[in-house]
Design a protein that fits this description.
This protein has one domain. The radius of gyration is 17 Å and the shape is elongated. Helix 1 runs antiparallel to helix 6 and helix 5 runs antiparallel to helix 6. It is mainly α. This is Cytochrome B561. Keywords: Membrane, Transmembrane, Transmembrane helix.
Length: about 160
């Protein structure tokens, strides 16, 4: 179950990133061009929040059953000094929860704005902040924090 869930979590990032980039692109375009905030923009906002929340939920389940985080919690004094252990034991989870909160807060703030330009501006700023945190927290193959493949398959 763990390896399957890990593969799903790894692949789901490829839903989060493009949907978030698409929403940000629409938000900046709408903000700078003076467009109306359409029902499609609303659907994009909701889709991004939903996909992001699904991803963080999968991550929290993984956090609870992962052998890395289990080791980290049982051997904290040693594990906190090992970069990759600390990354998955604290940093990755914390930053992804923070990114999800930024995106969710931004989404709620968009919903409460009255004017279209305020909606686009709010979505652009909050979603971009969330994306920046996500990009830092993903264990990319080239990351100095923890290296993982672009695609993790079940084996």
């Amino acid at each position: 179950m763990y390896t399957t869930l890990l593969a799903i979590h790894s692949l789901t990032r490829w839903l989060v990133l493009p949907s978030l980039l698409f929403a940000i692109q629409r938000a900046f375009r709408g903000w700078y061009s003076g467009k109306a905030f359409s029902t499609f923009d609303e659907a994009v906002r909701l889709a991004v929040v939903t996909i992001t929340n699904i991803q963080v939920s999968l991550g929290l389940v993984l956090y609870a059953i992962s052998p890395i985080t289990t080791y980290f919690s049982h051997h904290y004094q040693v594990a906190v000094h090992v970069g990759e252990m600390r990354f998955f034991g604290i940093e990755h989870a914390f930053m992804m929860i923070m990114a999800t909160l930024l995106i969710s807060i931004g989404s709620v703030r968009v919903k409460n704005k009255r004017h279209d330009q305020e909606k686009f501006k709010t979505m652009a700023i909050w979603f971009t902040l969330g994306l920046l945190v996500i990009l830092i927290a993903i264990p990319w193959p080239f990351s100095p924090l923890a290296k993982r493949p672009f695609f993790r398959l079940v084996y």
